[in-house]
Hints:
Layout lengths: L2 H19 L6 H15 L3 E6 L6 H9 L15 E6 L4 E6 L5 E4 L5 H4 L11 E8 L2 H4 L2 E5 L8 H10 L5 E7 L6 H13 L2 E7 L6 H19 L6 E3 L2 H10 L2 H7 L1 H41 L6 H10 L1 H5 L19 E4 L7 H23 L1 H9 L5 H10 L2 H7 L1 H17 L3 H6 L9 H23 L5 E4 L3 H11 L3 H29 L8 H4 L1 H10 L10 H4 L1
Parallel strand pairs: 1-6, 1-7, 2-5, 7-8, 8-9, 10-11
Antiparallel strand pairs: 2-6, 3-4, 3-5
Helix pairs in contact: 1-2, 1-11, 1-12, 1-22, 2-11, 2-22, 3-9, 9-10, 11-12, 14-15, 14-17, 14-20, 15-18, 20-21, 21-22, 22-24
Amino acid sequence: xxxxxxEQKKFALAExxxxxxxxxxxxxxxxxxxxxxxxxxxxxxxNLMVVGRFSRGKSTLMNAILGxxxxxxxxxxxxxxxxxxxxxxxxxxxxxxxxxxxxxxxxLSELAAYVTQQGNPGNSKRIAWAEIQLPVEILRRGFFFVDxxxxxxxxxxxxxxxxxxxxxxxxxxxxxxxxxxxxxxEGRILERxxxxxxxxxxxxxxxxxxxxxxxxxxxxxxxxxxxxxxxxEPQELYSISARQALEGKVTGDRKKFDESxxxxxEAELFRFLTEDRTQLFLxxxxxxxxxxxxxxxxxxxxxDQEPGWDGVIxxxxxxxxxxxxxxxxxxxxxxxxxxxxxxxxxxIDRKSGCSICGVVLEATFRFLSKYQYELTINPDAQHxxxxxxxxxxxxxxxxxxxxxxxxVCTAYPELVHRVAASVTRVAEESRDPPxxxxxxxxxxxxxxxxEVQRDAVQTAVRNAAELARSSxxxxxxxxxxxxxxxVMLAQALGPGDAVRELLEAHANLLERxxxxxxxxxxxxxxxxxxxTSEEERRASQNALLLLAGHRNLTSPWVIEYIL
Length: 563
């Protein structure tokens, strides 16, 4: 079960809960219970807590997992501030203050001024925790990394802060190192973790600083210590070099990454996050929802109400295997998929969505800005405008939006006189009035703005096709297209690798947008809109832009077709 499948199962469960909620909208208890279930689904936050003595390389390890040097490293000692890492549409830090509901957004480069002893001595700025937001895919799926103050630093409050946060963790990564494995402070944390009965990964960092024999001896020492303190064989003990792993990922040096040892740790970590943890959550939510449905159904029967509970319960039963992975009493999990990284990253224009729409909108605005002035002062332009029967309906009102009453009053008299004369002739002749009146209507062929737009579309599609052909097989950022323009772009490209990669990238973007729609709806139902990311808040707009194109380029009808 990969992360995408996991989220779709959550959304399916949310649909069942919404159906139950709609059965009796006046039942306050029912509404509250349903909202509680939806809230649990929406808040599906998993705290992966990274602990260890200061200078162990915790931040470097997290950077290596995230794939880039995003978190500041080498800052010791830290103040008593918990730092969480969650998904955000852009890199930034949100500071949460003690005894205050106000937050403050700062740049990632400013983090040291709030979480270091030098920048914030004794936490005099009263930071409760610093929330780093990064546009990294694994964080988008609800995982929170929690970077704790280093244990054993001269600041005693650091250790106390870390220990106080332990109950909020869902799993732990203990980072020690080969230079001095398992300090006294780390041993004490192990004792606390053992009592939580939660998942523990132990990482020995800086393997590149010791010989193979020293590495073997240190690993055996740590294994013995874990056996003694935890009372079991350590199954999650990994030897790595976070520095080598990060350098290998950033530079694309596969050999250095393989030598770092991070791959085995990442594989098990991601397997746990995407299988063990997600399966447990879904199974628990299924059982909780089923128990609520049965109780609500029983109460409805006692009051002689038949609001359709059987149908909702049947829907939940039908989804039992899909949601929980349980079939015939077993609970087998499918293997975690390892999707191939997308070569092309599509970018959505914030104003127009589609890049081709953006080009056409700009061309339209430039033309109308100049032409409305020509219509005001130039009799030849006014005559040509009247001869063409004016603009089509859509562009008439776009013209009005950038013109003025004076401009319309100077530009339109000839056209209005011309139409008046034509209508008079139709009235006098009285032969097939509808057919003659239809000839007075401007069309997309006669409208000057439509002509400008056709030329702009052809140029934009040609340029987009050239960009796609030049990007075959490369990692590239390609502007997204709306569905109408994607049809034109695919036609311009013709069969081949370029159109295949373009369509695959757009399919992925549409899937991602659909998931953002579902996340927003779930968090809205759960009254947790403050948890939404920028992509989720823009999902409704982006979805319509991608499907239909920009509203200013889309006429509600083509007049010559409906008459």
